[in-house]
Amino acid sequence: MATQPKTGLTYEDLQAFAEDNFRRELIDGELIVTAVPATRHQRVVLELGASLLAHTKQHGGEVFVAPTDVFFSDTNVVEPDVLYVSPENMARVEEKLVRSAPVVVVEVSSPSTRRLELVRKRELYERFGVPEYWYVDLDADRVEVYRLEAASFGRPTILTRAERLRSPLIPGWSIEVNELLGPAEE
Predict the structure, then answer these.
(1) Which residue among 3, 69, 120, 135 is least packed, with the fewest CB closer than 10 Å?
(2) What are phi and psi of 184, to 5 degrees?
């Protein structure tokens, strides 16, 4: 027997859950629960977060890694793997969350969350005006960069190991995709 998803929830409901190492997010009031990611996933998050952190120390802005809530609305609260807030948007950073669209959000693939990240979260980020969404696809060994164009994400730019990830929204920053992805899994 299938269970019905919990819907109609708000940020207040999300805050009432106990700490238990599960990631809880809301998309249109529906509770999305995912397990702790694998070690390769976390290495990629750490590599990207460290690179962006070094950049923000020199140029301003702020970088966060999960779990950090991004509050789009009372029924839309997610925890991207990595997010970047530009210096001019620092007012969005509050004590417990980032309110409104960060400049860049990043999701690193996990087998159990692929559809969530490529469909539901991408649509959510588009709807709430996130300028750039990066999807680090560990299975395909690449990075997909979605940029907001006229209120919607255009076709992604696909970056492979031989290329560099950079963004016009983070001037002066870049990282080699090979360095970001680390050793290929066999």
Answers:
(1) 3
(2) -70, 140
Q: Are 37 and 110 in contact (CB under 8 A)?
A: yes
DSSP, residue by residue, 94-121: -SSEEES--SEEEEE--TTTHHIIIIII
Beta bridge partners of 174: 166
Give the pLDDT mean for 111-138: 92
pLDDT tens digits for range 20-41: 878 899 999 999 998 888 899 9
pLDDT in tens, 138-155: 999 999 999 999 999 999
Query: What average pLDDT does this structure show over 119-124?
Result: 94
**Cα–Cα distance measured from residue 133 to residue 148, given in angstroms and rounded to the nearest whole number:** 8
38-181 has which fold?
Answer: tt1808, chain A (3.90.1570)
Query: Which residue is it, tokens 């789009």?
Result: 72
Q: What is the 3-state secondary structure (H, E, C) of 1-70?
A: CCCCCCCCCCHHHHHCCCCCCCEEEEECCEEEEECCCCHHHHHHHHHHHHHHHHHHHHHCCEEEECCCEE
| Token pair listed for 94 | 């509050």
What ranges do the domains of the chain cover? Answer: 38-181
Q: Does this model's pTM top 0.85?
A: yes
